[in-house]
Design goal:
It is built from 6 helices and 18 strands. It is of the alpha+beta class. It has 2 domains: 62 residues, Structural Genomics Hypothetical 15.5 Kd Protein In mrcA-pckA Intergenic Region, Chain A (Roll); 214 residues, 2-Layer Sandwich (Pseudouridine synthase). The strands form 3 sheets. Strands 1, 8, 9, 10, 11, 12, 13, 14, 15, 16, 17 and 18 form a 12-stranded mixed β-sheet that branches. It has a 4-stranded antiparallel β-sheet with strand order 2-7-4-5, with no helix packed on it. A two-stranded antiparallel ribbon has the order 3-6. It is elongated, with a radius of gyration of 24 Å.
């Protein structure tokens, strides 16, 4: 069974939790003792607490990982010096461990900026977030969502994990499902769109008429609802090409609502009608099947409300 995770909100510790004390009951090295007591934190996080001088043994601060503890000693851990996590704008963290960060991104937030741009992005915010715990921490891009696409997105916490995920993306990702609000009534209840995608000189993707000319892209869809000149589709990607859904929806004559770049005529819901609802994948280090979902924004159902 996949391991499901609920959205979690990290709150700063209450004042009374600023210092926690533990009595040593058996001989053990300090780092191993801390890892056992601070079970909610990863190894690097615990090392960072040590390095900042937030741990004392019998009242004496120590930063040595291999400090030998003996029964009867008191180990105190202070959280007072821990910097408060920077606020996140336009995204929330769904899941975090030593290897990956999974977030829910809102429409309007860039995943990653180009060198010429200097605005707030998911990447920059999450970099600041992990560095508030340890200045050496970094994050790495695994895949991207368009600025105006909302939903589930994953980052790696090391270059090794990033490469593992990217090199095995097709095998590692077990399910990648979007919800798409498209123009017009899609009469075929379900279907598969297959083409070879290429990029024009103006950076616009398009389907090549020649088999094998470009990157193979396969999109499966099912109609969820129709009405008032729009259709709501559940879209499952077999491949993850740039702008794949947007191009394929235009190819079948039902452009994503609000997507003027790819043929949309209406404003739709005032944003791109595309939401990354579900991402299921094999964890790069544990091998567990992980599954994360993001609720579909209510605005996607605007045209289908019963009166």
């Amino acid at each position: 069974m996949p391991e499901k995770r609920r959205r979690t909100t990290v709150k700063p510790p209450a004042p009374q939790d600023a210092v926690k004390s533990y009595t040593v009951t058996e001989p053990v090295q300090l780092l191993n003792f801390l890892l056992a007591k601070m079970s909610g934190k990863g190894r690097n996080s615990v090392k960072a607490v040590l390095a900042r001088g937030q741990v004392s043994v019998n009242g004496q601060a120590t930063t040595a990982y291999n400090f030998p503890l003996v029964p009867g000693q008191t180990v105190a851990i202070s959280t007072e010096k821990t910097e408060e996590k920077p606020p996140l704008m336009g995204l929330s963290i769904i899941y975090e461990d030593e290897a990956i960060l999974v977030v829910d991104k809102e429409a309007g937030l860039l995943s990653v900026a180009s060198p010429q741009e200097n605005e707030i992005t998911a990447y920059r915010q999450l970099t600041a977030y992990v560095r508030s715990e340890n200045p050496q921490n970094r994050i790495f891009v695994v895949h991207r969502l368009d600025r105006d696409t909302s939903g589930v997105m994953m980052f790696a916490k090391s270059e090794e994990v990033q490469q593992t995920l990217q090199n095995n993306w097709q095998d590692a990702v077990k399910e990648r499902t979007y919800v798409a609000l498209v123009e017009g009534t899609v009469h075929k209840s379900e279907g598969t769109i297959k083409s070879w995608l290429k990029e024009s000189s103006t950076l616009k993707m398009y389907s090549s008429p020649q088999p094998g000319d470009g990157q193979l892209a396969v999109t499966n869809y099912k109609v969820m609802q129709t009405g008032n000149g729009f259709s709501l589709l559940s879209v499952n990607l077999e491949t993850g090409r740039k702008n794949q859904i947007r191009v394929h929806m235009q190819d079948i004559g039902h452009s994503v609502a609000g997507d003027k770049k790819y043929g949309a005529k209406s404003k739709g819901i005032g944003r791109l009608g595309l939401h990354a609802r579900l991402l299921a994948f094999t964890h790069p280090t544990t091998g567990k099947l992980m599954r994360f979902e993001s609720p579909v924004p209510p605005v996607f159902y605007r045209f289908f409300k019963q009166h």
